[in-house]
Fold this protein.
Amino acid sequence: MRKIWKPLIAVLAIGLAGFLLYRTLSRYSLDQLFDAVAAIPAARLAAAGGFAAASYLCLSGFDYLALRYVGRPQPYYRAAWASFTSLSIGHNIGLAFLSSGAVRYRFYTRWGLSAEQVAKVIVFCGITVGLGLMVLGGAALLLQTSLAVEITGLSKPIVIALGAGCLALPVLYLVLSAIVKKPLRIWRWTFEIPPLRLAIPQTIIGAVNFAFVAACLHQALAAVTDVAYVGVASVYVIANTTALVSHVPGGLGVIESVVMYLLPGQDLIGPLLVFRFVYFLIPLCIGILVFLITELAYRRKGQNHAEISDAPARA
């Protein structure tokens, strides 16, 4: 059964990712796709691509730290390899905890991690996502309270309370990492709060990642509307949180709807389409290709090992 279901995961992940890519692109004509990209100045487009690449670089840091957290550190290139492949596909499939987790499982079990260790890596990365959203959202709400009030329509005291609450939770997490030494047990799984030497970079890299994603979106929106980066960061945190809760693949339609609702009066379809191309679809195409090459390479390697092990018997 193991020989059957492991390749099945790979086939299903690639097939579903390819279908989602087709479904997303089929909603637009070829002229619309070209016009959307052509409407963005080359400098803005290049900056958006650079910030997207910087975000995926940060995401590789999630896995790099997580592997140290579970006591199975790997070379950075392996963490980056598994992280980019799993997240470029998982971002578009939705239910990232399961979809990107399945791809991570394919990589990490080959490198000697147990199922429990892979689960802990996934949980660590999920917590890093939450920490990053809270830090960026809290900072944006408190630094530009008036702008956040204007965009969200909430009262100033509520915005301040939300901002303070967002920042209080990461602080509490760091305090717990410094004082709690006993592991937490949930059913048969045992989880330990990361030590402070991992929790601090975990919190920082989580926030920096989302700062880069917001910067990518800001560069696309700045081509058609004059909006401050902090305002875009606030909107993106709200949109991304909504997308995570809804589990819609890639936040498809959710991010666009929230951004257009919170920033009315502008034609934002083109910039939002460019953002989706740069941050979701281009990495998805690369991720599918890397995953296919990886599966073929490991399959060939396994066949070679099998032939070598059978050679003495034939002799």
